[in-house]
Amino acid sequence: MQNKKALIWIFAVLLTLSAAVYQRLTGPTHPQRTKVTIGGQTHNFKLLRSFDGPAECPIAISVPDPEVTGTLEYRIFPQKVDYIPVPMTREGGILTASLPHQEMAGKLEYKIVLKKGAEQVGLNNGTPTVIRFKGFVPGFVLIPHILIMFLAMLFSNVAGVFALFKIPSFKMMRITLGTIFVGGLIMGPIVQKYAFNELWAGIPYGWDLTDNKTLIAFLAWAIAYLFNRNSESRYWVVAASVVTIGIFSIPHSLFGSQLDPATGKIIQGMIQPYLQLFF
Questions:
Q1: The model's pTM
Q2: Which of 133, 165, 192 delimits the end of a domain?
Q3: Which of 66, 83, 128, 213 could form a disulfide linkage to 73, CB 3.0–4.6 angstroms apart?
Q4: Is 173 inside a domain boundary?
Q5: What is the pLDDT of residues 254-270, one digit of tens each?
Q6: How far apart are CA 241 and CA 144, in angstroms?
Q7: Considering only CA atoms, which of 45, 38, 30, 34 is closest in space to residue 67?
């Protein structure tokens, strides 16, 4: 039995790490990787898609060739207006320019065009990159939130596999419920308040996917707990575990809070991917 539990823990750790890495790397705020070839040389870049500084957002790319010049073009997202061009300055092998600071949850979309002689190319084939501005979240708030939510995913996976192999899982289920409550429903709103000046943007106040998927996970485990109070019902535990790993595999910050530039109010960016098809 002990060997089986040890293997389950190892499997759960690997599954949790995989889901966490996938969630982070596929999220719309993770730096966008792209590359471009100009003057016979290929350059790889990471383009910012999230910024929490109090001033302008610096955009810097490494292009050692001194004959290459660059222009940063930006506009408020999702408005269909002309792009504002900003010449990039060269500091050694680095081309730099800045995006103007935006209010919390405000977004800009920007493009970078490189030129060498008569050759001109746009990064990402000219497709704009969307960047969201947010308030600074201090480490003493953000780190506990991330750690507790990671533990919640880990305990959820362990509880689910325990139930699947008919190993008593009620204790692990209670721990999972508790960590989701603390990490997601207490620490999560505090992070949201620092980042976007809102404690909760999920149901019934909005459709922020990050808040709502936390709520769904908590409800799934609350239901499993209710059905296991008097007698063990492992099917509910397995179901809650599957729901949790599924929703926490959704890219982080997808359909997240977004400032409506017309009203100045924070809405949810559920239509962002579709707007980008037309603007």
A1: 0.83
A2: 133
A3: 83
A4: yes
A5: 666 777 777 777 776 54
A6: 22
A7: 38
